[in-house]
Each structure stands twice: as structure tokens, then as C-alpha cells.
Amino acid sequence: MYDLIGDIHGNADELIRLLEALGYEKAQGVYRHPERKVIFLGDFIDRGPKIREALEVVRPMVEAGHALAIMGNHELNALAYYTEDPEEPGQYLRRRNPKNDKQIRKTVEQLNPQELRSYLEWCRTLPLWLDLKGLRVIHACWDEVAIAQIAAALEEHGGVTTSFLRSACRKGNALFHPVEVILKGREAKLPDGLSFHDSGGNVRTEIRTRWYLSPRGQTYRTYALHSEAIPCDLTIDESVIQAATSYPTTAKPVFFGHYWLSDKRPELLAENVACIDYGQTRGFLCGYRWNGEQTLSNANFVWVQGD
Ligand SMILES: [Mn+2]
């Protein structure tokens, strides 16, 4: 059975405390449990103070078979940031600009070039989702159409190659939208003229949606994952409804991270939908102890709080 662990972002101390709280012990340099495995939900790097130490826990667990891991948007971004665009020599698939430089800065500061290279090659091998017996795991959004497109492309490109990354990183290319959806979630534009400030202080005109729900009959505020910030009680526009999908209540449970649902006690989003990313920059790291149940339970969240 599996223990799911949300976005670590270089918070190795919290990771070790959470593993220990879940009964994992270090032996021959690798955390392990006699009966269980971890599934890491991606976003291991950037932001936090102990990125190397976090990777030194996660990667050996995966390589020794004590854990599975999927890719987060920060891993894909890092790969693209260091992959030169074959069509535009001297340019990288992820643009070098102040915003993108800032996102990866802590990782670049904390890892030496050899470590970074080795880590990126490992990242390239990570799956973008897992569809296992009894559960599904993805970084941000389970979307059948996007997943089918990406699966076909992985086959065609032979994995997360430079050509795959190029298609995923350039607006207008075939993989841009599907990869955005699964790694960053679905968004919906607010009615004209409306905007809000996100938790980072950025002005936003799009909401991050509760993609697992049907938007029919909802307002922008109720359909948003971070609803407290949304200044709009208008009913969701028909164009958003037409483009939306939802996650069937009868489908296998799905686990994801990414959303940084801070300031509250971890809580299921639906009986078969669990986000386990709760604002770890303040030292909060969340997990879910899964024992095969198809109806998830709030009692199975496990978390540690930083100092
Ligand atoms: Mn993320």
C-alpha cells in the first residue's frame, strides 16, 4: 500500500519528519518501510533551504524500489531551462528571464553543476502520471483527453526528449496545452475587467478551477480552488462550461499536489479527490496514508508542521 507525499520544494527536514511519522526508517542510506511504499507527487526542487538533502532522500528511495515519483511543473521547467532550443541556437526552451531565473535560483545556488546535471537526467525518467490498481496520481489535474494526447506523444518522441519538451514549452505547439493542464491545472478567465491578487501578490485575471467538479450552476467564486480571493459571484460563463471536464464520482481516487492550499487543515476535495499540497514554504508538509480504500477519509491525512 502507498503513502502519498505532496510537494517537497527543498524542505528536507519536514520530509524526514513526515517519513518517520509514517514509520519509515533509514537503512543502508535509504528510507524504507517493511510493507509500504511512498508515492511522491513532484516538485522536489526550488523555493526551500535543503534541496540537495531532499533529493538525496527521494531519489534513492525511488531507485531502490521503496518509492514511486512523478514529475511536477518545477521539474519540467528545470529540464526546459537547461535544454537549448535546437531551432534557435543560444536560446533555451524555457526562456531565461527574471521571472524564470528567480523560480530556479535556489536550486542553482544549492546544487553544483554536476549534481544538477545528474538530477535533471533522473527527472527526465519520471512518469508524468501513474494509473495504478485502485488509485491515480498526477501533479495538478487528471484530464483524460490531455493524458491521451501526452501518452501518444511520449510514444512518438521516445519519452521526455528535447523534441517532446519543445512541443510542451512553446505556446501554440501541440503539447503546450495538455502539459499545462496536467502539471499546472485548469484555469478559467474571469469576466472582462475583473482581477484579483494571488497569494504571491501577482494580479490574476484567471481562476484556478475545481476541475474535478462540473462548473454548471457554479459561480466564479465557488468554482475557484482559492475561492476567498475571487471577487465574483456571477455564474460561470457558458464558454467555460463547454470547455470543462470533471472527474467522475465513480472513478478511482485521484491524488495530486501543486495547489498550495494553505492555512487550513488538510481536507478531501471530494470522496475520490485529494490534494495533498498545503503551503510547505512555512514548513507544512502533507501526506496521505492510503490502504486501498476507494472512498477516501480525512482521517488518513498525516502532516508535519515546521518550527
Ligand atoms: Mn507545482
The gist of it:
The chain is α/β, with parallel strands linked by helices. It has helices spanning 12-21, 51-63, 73-81, 98-110, 113-124, 144-157, 162-169, 176-184, 220-223, 238-243, and strands at residues 2-5, 25-27, 30-32, 37-40, 67-69, 129-132, 135-138, 187-189, 196-197, 203-204, 206-208, 254-256, 273-275, 284-290, 301-305.
Number of strands: 15
**CATH architecture field of the largest domain:** 4-Layer Sandwich
Structural class: alpha/beta
CATH homology-level superfamily of the largest domain: Metallo-dependent phosphatases
Run of helices and strands: EHEEEHEHHHEEHHHEEEEHHEEEE
Which consecutive residue ranges, at least 5 long each, have pLDDT under 50? none
General form:
globular
Stated plainly, the CATH topology of the largest domain is called Purple Acid Phosphatase, chain A, domain 2
Averaging pLDDT over every residue, what do you get? Answer: 94
Using only CA atoms, what is the Rg? 19 Å
Which cofactor or ligand species appear? manganese (II) ion
The CATH class name of the largest domain reads Alpha Beta
Number of domains: 2
Give the biggest sheet.
Answer: 5 strands, mixed
Strand content: 15-25%
- Span between termini: 30 Å
- What is the count of helical runs? 10
Sheet with most strands: strand arrangement: 5-4-1-14-15
Helix content: 25-40%
List the helices and strands and how they pair.
Layout: E1 2-5, H1 12-21, E2 25-27, E3 30-32, E4 37-40, H2 51-63, E5 67-69, H3 73-81, H4 98-110, H5 113-124, E6 129-132, E7 135-138, H6 144-157, H7 162-169, H8 176-184, E8 187-189, E9 196-197, E10 203-204, E11 206-208, H9 220-223, H10 238-243, E12 254-256, E13 273-275, E14 284-290, E15 301-305
Parallel strand pairs: 1-4, 4-5, 7-12, 12-13
Antiparallel strand pairs: 1-14, 2-3, 6-7, 8-11, 9-10, 14-15
Helix pairs in contact: 1-2, 3-5, 6-8
This protein binds manganese (II) ion.
